[in-house]
Design a protein that fits this description.
Shape of chain A: flat
Strand order of the largest sheet of chain B: 1-2-5-4-3
Strand content of chain B: 15-25%
Order of helices and strands of chain B: HEHEHEHEEEEHEEHHHH
Number of strands of chain B: 9
Largest sheet of chain A: none
Distance between the termini of chain A: 49 Å
Shape of chain B: globular
Number of helices of chain B: 9
Radius of gyration of chain A: 18 Å
Number of helices of chain A: 4
Helix content of chain B: 40-55%
Radius of gyration of chain B: 16 Å
Structural class of chain A: mainly alpha
Oligomer: heterodimer
Largest sheet of chain B: 5 strands, mixed
Chain lengths: 69, 165
């Protein structure tokens, strides 16, 4: 699990750091902080839940309704 | 959808020698990207091919995306005569790699793996350093897309010893 130093680094990216580069690239550092607070197993369980959710909603926008033929 | 909670312990219980790589490995290290399959690098010694073939046989592995009329016989001989297999199974999508770009064979991947507890079982997962090397070596745009996040995770976790150097 994440140590205090890792969380601090992600919350306060140093100039020129890989963390700052990731933030500039568009990586949501708050998600990394959230993930690193979990154990590896908890991270994989969260992934499984996300996979399940994605499976359910995939293609939902393509479904036609009486108001959207 | 891949049933990780069943598949990973199942492989371990069946004695299959493997290292988790790819998206699930990234997840173990803290990645927020969602992946839809399990990628593993497997040992290619004959006993392990037998164990892997037996472990997956009840779940009807077939080649993912291949025409339905393409014959595909799942057994240790098939594993022996191939290297990488992109499979669809009753437990979801599973990719078997005999070698990992930028890392090497199972033995080399195992050497640089970390052991974590997943679903009550000790599992070998490719280290973050090697995962980054593998993504760089794979060279596909989708692999490079995740590199900034993985490199940020590595930097966040640097120990004090590295800091002093």
């Amino acid at each position: 699990m994440m140590n205090d130093k890792a969380e601090y680094r992600l919350q306060h990216p140093a100039p020129g750091s890989a963390i700052e580069a990731a933030r500039t690239f568009g990586v949501d550092l708050s998600l990394l902080i959230e993930r690193l607070r979990l154990t590896p197993e908890e991270r994989v369980r969260a992934l499984q839940q996300a996979m399940t959710m994605m499976d359910r909603i995939r293609g939902a926008a393509r479904k036609t309704t009486p108001h959207n033929p | 959808m891949t049933d990780l909670q069943f598949l990973i312990p199942h492989l371990v219980k069946q004695g299959v020698e493997f290292v988790i790589i790819g998206g699930v490995a990234a997840t173990v290290h803290g990645s927020s990207y969602v992946t839809y399959d399990l990628d593993i690098c497997y040992a290619r010694n004959r006993p392990n091919l037998d164990r892997l073939a037996a472990a997956l046989s009840p779940y009807h592995p077939r080649l993912r995306g291949a025409p339905e009329d393409i014959p595909f016989h799942w057994d240790a001989e098939t594993l022996k005569h191939g290297l990488n297999f992109t499979l669809q199974t009753d437990l979801g999508d599973l990719d078997l790699l005999g070698e990992v770009s930028g890392v090497g064979t199972f033995e080399q991947a195992r050497e640089v793996a970390v052991v974590v507890m997943l679903f009550g079982f000790e599992c070998a997962v490719l280290s973050l350093d090697s995962l980054i090397a593998a993504k760089r070596a794979a060279g596909r745009p989708k692999d490079h897309l995740v590199l900034p996040e993985l490199e940020a995770l590595r930097e966040a976790d640097q120990d004090e010893e590295r800091d002093e150097n």
